Amino acid sequence: MRIISGQYKGRRITAPKKLPVRPTTDMAKESLFNILNNQFYFDDISVLDLFAGTGNISYEFASRGTEQITAVDENYGCIKFINSTSEDFEMPITTIKSDVYKYLERANQKFTIIFADPPYDFPVEEFSKIPQLVFQNELLEDEGLLIVEHSKHTNLSHLEHYSHSKSYGGNMFSFFNK
Question: Which terms are listed as keywords in the entry (predicted)?
Fold first, then answer.
């Protein structure tokens, strides 16, 4: 995986093969950040990266100047890798080793962007818990955005606060807001 833009543009990051992850493709990531670039000033926002995996999305935000990034994953190897990589690049990423749903139940900070990339094989019920907990616990700022990455075979358009989806190959991003 590589960082698409910003201070670390072009830098390649190689994650250990043993991590249970499926990083967002470069094409999908570039398209997503083109959308976000038109809506946000990256140095003025706070980001929550759920199911952070390799930290791919967190690194992209950090490279573009975001100073407040929290990455949550329950896998110790993923957290260790994100910590090591963010330390090497001197990126301001705070990691939390936790089950994402438990974290969302007890979180008390608001974020501008919440990005969730759960396993694609999750049942729709598991996907639906993410926006439910985010909005129930008021974790998004007023103009904030929740983005859930999923397979094109998963439909989230029936969920409350759903705005729209964008498809990139087999990847899909569903956007939710207040």
Answer: Methyltransferase, Transferase
pTM more than 0.85: yes
* DSSP assignments along 93-132, one per residue: EEEEES-HHHHHHH----EEEEEE---TT--HHHHHHHHH
**What's the pLDDT tens digit per position in 138-151?**
999 999 999 999 99
Q: How many structural domains compose the chain? A: 1
Report if residue 135 sits inside a domain: yes
pLDDT digits (tens, 9 = 90+) for 67-102: 999 999 999 999 999 999 999 999 999 999 999 999
* Beta-bridge partners for 165: 174
Residue with tokens 């990339």: 117
Domain assignment of residue 13, yes or no: no
- What CATH number does residue 128 fall under? 3.40.50.150
